[in-house]
Amino acid sequence: MPPDELPPGPSLFATFDFIRNPFRFLDTCASRYGDWFTVRVPGVAPFVFTSDPAAVREIFLGDPDALHAGEANRPLGAFMGERSSLFLDGSEHLRQRRLLLPAFHGEQVASHADAMRNAADNAIASWPRGQRFRIHPQMRAITFETIIRAVFGFENDSTGAELRASLKKLFALYTSRLGTLFSLPAMQIDAGRWSPWGRAVRLTRQIDSILYAEFARRRKEGVEGRADILSMLLSARYEDGQPLPDNVIRDEMYTLMLAGHETTAATMAWVINRLVTNPEVMERARAEVFSALNGRLLDASHVGKLKYLEAAINETMRLDPVVPNIGRGLKKPMTIAGVQLPSGVTIAPCIYLVHRRRELWPNPAQFNPDRFLESRQSPYTFFPFGGGSRRCLGAAFATYQMKIVIAEILSRVELKKVDGYEPHAIRRGIAFAPSDGLPVNCD
Ligand code: HEM
């Protein structure tokens, strides 16, 4: 293929299905065009999707200065701000990522175990027994509360309450049908407080003033003895000894709050869907939880023992990845796995399609957690958290939280499938969640 010619792909009309039913859209493209296809959306660079694991490997090991993830992520951003590590590239990205990393190391993540369990317990206590309800909003409430505590360390103070209220409104807007279109510049028009973008702008201003006041308060009072992520960032220093400017910390706060709760909530909803439709897996996972707990309250010491539950979570992320593809903007012409690509396109390793390749995953559509107990997976064939120098910062945090929350659910209630309900994926903010909020019956 000449360098300026891109692999064939769907028409703009067919591409609308990416919003209506993204997994179906990807399946159709793969069966029609194979391992490589181009998706074009007006106003943004063409996306060249690939499901070739050799290409995934080259991209993850490739030069980050030539493969810009930050640039490709920017449409997700809307109100997160330009200084977020999600949107930076090159040495600036590395410098900032280094300062965030300590907040996501094993011991630090384990320190949030009680907050994770308490948030789950509070939600579970409110579930109506003997009735049907939607599980996805419940998962969002749990992950929202957990991330607020991890990021700010707020308990029951008034700043925490004010911030929670404004953030909930902003995130509800962002994950609504209209908010999902905020990534298109044409939707970012402030036509007053009643227009969707106008509301988002005003809410963001409100939240910013709470955040900046909190930064100033902590800088004045000191952060000694505090283990939350904000306090860590306030005391962090770049290699030249400089502190992070407030606008950078502000952008990282938004990123962690958003990236840190929508994705995990949607993934847990998919896990519950897989468990209620595979009762034998659910019972095996429940038995493992009871055996690990042995009558005690779930805490950090139990998490490592939940191997089968972790396998069930991984198998769910294989089949229902809430981020179905990632992106890297090409800064120069490149040949990737033998395919020549011009500068300016975004190459999009397709998590969803690689996770369903027949030669990698025998009987790929079957939900079988044992796959993850029997063999170790390669980072180029199983990558729900992306990869290379851009791999998700919160992967350990998310996995830890999912194990705690699902274990707590299994130990406390019996969830059952609602007859006739078959979910498809819908985009909500940055994650693809099950349609209709995933109704379940609870006993
Ligand atoms: C199941 C839950 C989650 C999934 C599936 C997920 C998935 C992803 C993916 C696919 C990427 C892009 C990686 C790439 O381009 O190669 C990413 C990046 C990122 N995620 Fe997550 N994520 C999850 C949870 C979290 C949590 C809990 C946090 C923080 C508390 C978080 C923070 C981030 C950040 C900061 C980045 C940007 C990393 C960088 O560019 O250096 N994520 N995530």
Give a written overview of the molecule.
- 50% of the residues lie in helices and 9% in strands.
- It is α+β, with helices and mostly antiparallel strands and 443 residues long.
- It has a single domain (12-153, 226-420), classed as Orthogonal Bundle (Cytochrome p450).
- A 5-stranded mixed beta sheet has the order 1-2-8-5-3, with helices on both faces. A 3-stranded antiparallel beta sheet has the order 4-12-9.
- The termini are far apart.
- The mean pLDDT is 92.
- Protoporphyrin IX containing FE is lined by residues 69, 85-86, 97, 255-256, 259-260, 263-264, 267, 322-323, 326, 384-387, 390-394, 397-398.
* Radius of gyration over C-alpha positions, nearest whole angstrom: 22 Å
Number of structurally distinct domains? 1
Structural class: alpha+beta
Oligomeric state of the chains? Answer: single chain
Q: Could you tell me how far the N terminus lies from the C terminus, measured between alpha carbons in angstroms? A: 58 Å
* Spatial order of the strands forming the largest sheet: 1-2-8-5-3
